[in-house]
Amino acid sequence: MPYKKILNSKYTSAFLSLLVCTVLSGIIIALMGENPFTVYAQLFKSAFIGNFNLGTTIEKFVPLLLTGLAFIVSSRVGVFNVGVEGELYLGAITAAYVGYTFKGLPSLVHIFLCIFFAMLVGSLWAFIPGFLKAYYKVNEVCVTILMNYVAIHITSYLVSGPLSGKTGISQTKPIEKSAALLKILKPSRANIGIFIAIAVCILIYYLLKKTKLGFQIRSTGMNPFFSEYVGIQSKKIMITGMMLSGAIGGLAGAIEVMGIYGVFLDNFSSNIAFDGMLAALIAKGSIGALPFLSLFIAALKSGSLGLERNTGIPKSLIDVIIALFILLVTMEKLFEFSKKRKKGKEV
Amino acid sequence: MGKFLSVIDYTIIHATIRATTPILLAAFAAVITQQADILNVGVEGIMLMGAFIAVYTSVLTGSWIIAVIAAVISGVVIAAIMGVAHLKYKGDIFAVGTTVNLLVLALTRFLLQKLLGVSGSYTLKEGTAIPQIHFKIFESNKILNSLFNDYSLFEILSIPLIIFFWFLLYKTVWGLRTRSIGLNPEAAKTAGINVYRRKFEVILISGIIGGLAGAHLSLGYSNLFTENMTNGRGFMGVAAMFFGAANPIFTAVGCMIFGFTDSVGARLQAYGFPSQIILMLPYIITILILSISMIKQYQKDKKRRSSIKA
């Protein structure tokens, strides 16, 4: 029956989680003595209306999209890359270093160099867990989590020692003008990084769907043994996929530095990559759905900043609501209205 | 050399135990679920919630015993949410765990502002923390005093706890059945084990331990609550669990490595080594040990297989 189909589609389920979450958080907001409707209206306004607000949403959207994409790419070869955060840090500091050491280059060349080296470093960093997983089955979740801390400490050391900008704050020298990405929607910090991000997203989609490498990647992810049997070098493909993921993570870091900060700031990320990973997880690994979910999370994040400025609602409350929403969305069977549910229960 | 000796002397033992305990408790919360094939990355969140609730209850009631109980309850509540989301509604456990971490991080930040009226951190007043255990007889000797005195409650309890968990998992029927779920859930089901219920139990136990870990962190280890005070200790616990392949004893060894490098590092800092380099040592050492042990095992397997062929 058609109505059952509509009820059981994943879009309905996502919509219903959103609805439940909206009502739930409305109640919480009302309990705090604020009118939920004005708060929601304010949240929407703070996320989209006006150059600054829209720009902040875009600024938050770009790293979410790229880190989410990095996570999806690695998961396609069957590796859980929790290390995107580390790749982001290393990519960022590399971009900053290349950005301020080279002088007098044409802008396009300079930007290309920064991005290239950031991606290179990111992919080399991801090579380590990829190699260990492919050849020796060392658990990648463990290695990548640990490597995040190593990466963050490395950048922190570099930025307070050898690469320090000597300004009192832990940051590098500012990058040359020729390496900076053009700002859009002033006075916000949004920049043309968004076009790079979207282009990369489309490119990866094409790569995975239409090319030989993409087929090998998908095949390896589904069954490495079978892939090996039919002549795909699944170990090498696994490492390639992981390096690709690392490169995207590095790119995300480079865009943060070149587009937003202009320097590498110690500890700048505050778990961007984990948010991106969540966007990827609720998109269920679909590259098509990822941009929408990233945008949604970005809008909530930037809206919450505006909300804190304009009302008494603290940002941390909105963060609670975001987490609640994601939790509801991850529950696949929460809104399943058919008899299948009973069957599922027995398992 | 004299410098070196003052870095590693008898006092390092106490320091290591101190630094190990929070990670060890977190690791056990991960061990118990991993044995039933659930990767619990939500330890960090459970622990953080426990730490906050412990501090808050301690402020309200002035009693650390009630505070520890409250922390355990809050841990169980968070664990129950994870259990429902993962087992009943089929949420990906990794996504659920990560979201729980996110949720608790924001929630504790919010509650810290609302309930305790501070942002950033809250320091406990005297007398509300978990008391340290002190024996008068050891006082006279400097070395004995350092080795045996002034441990917080859970620092002492952690050693019997290792043995308890080992016994529970490897010597009891409950443990055998739990491990069978981890090895092959279908077979376990065929053998009449209620996999769903067992997995739920395991998650709840993990909540109890996680809550204790949190209470220890805020009331036993540091006497304050700070935003994100777990600071990756839950993840370190998960890493130690992987290191020990979910075996309590080997996991404890993994935690010791963290604790030992951590306390050596703290001392080396005084000699002008860059702190960041020292801080990353435990992670690098763990990665190395993990990799070497897996590579060794791989070579052994390869040798065995080639001898079968020959």
Give a quick rundown of the structure.
The complex is a heterodimer of chains A (347) and B (310). Chain A is mainly α.
Question: Could you give the topology of this structure?
Answer:
The complex is a heterodimer of chains A (347) and B (310).
Chain A: H1 2-8, H2 10-31, H3 36-48, H4 51-76, H5 84-101, H6 107-136, H7 140-160, H8 193-210, H9 212-222, H10 224-229, H11 234-261, H12 272-282, H13 290-310, H14 315-330, H15 340-346
Helix pairs in contact in A: 2-3, 2-14, 3-4, 3-13, 4-8, 4-11, 4-12, 4-13, 5-6, 5-7, 5-11, 6-11, 8-9, 9-11, 12-13, 13-14
Chain B: H1 2-7, H2 11-34, H3 43-61, H4 64-88, H5 93-115, E1 121-123, E2 132-133, H6 142-148, E3 151-152, H7 153-171, H8 173-183, H9 185-190, H10 195-221, E4 224-226, H11 233-243, H12 248-268, H13 275-309
Antiparallel strand pairs in B: 1-4, 2-3
Distance between the termini of chain B: 53 Å
Strand composition percent of chain A: under 5%
End-to-end CA span of chain A:
26 Å
Regions of chain B with pLDDT < 50 over 5+ consecutive residues?
none
Helix content of chain A: over 70%
- Principal-axes geometry of chain B comes out as globular
Mean pLDDT of chain B: 87
Counting structural domains of chain B, the number is 1
Rg of chain A is 21 Å
Classify the secondary structure makeup of chain A into a structural class.
Answer: mainly alpha
Output mean pLDDT of chain A: 87
* Oligomeric state, counting identical vs distinct chains: heterodimer
- Report the sheet with the most strands of chain A, covering strand number, pairing sense and barrel closure: none
Number of beta strands of chain B: 4
Number of helices of chain B: 13
Q: How much of the residues of chain B is beta strand, in percent?
A: under 5%
Order of helices and strands of chain A: HHHHHHHHHHHHHHH
Helix tally of chain A?
15
Helix content of chain B: over 70%
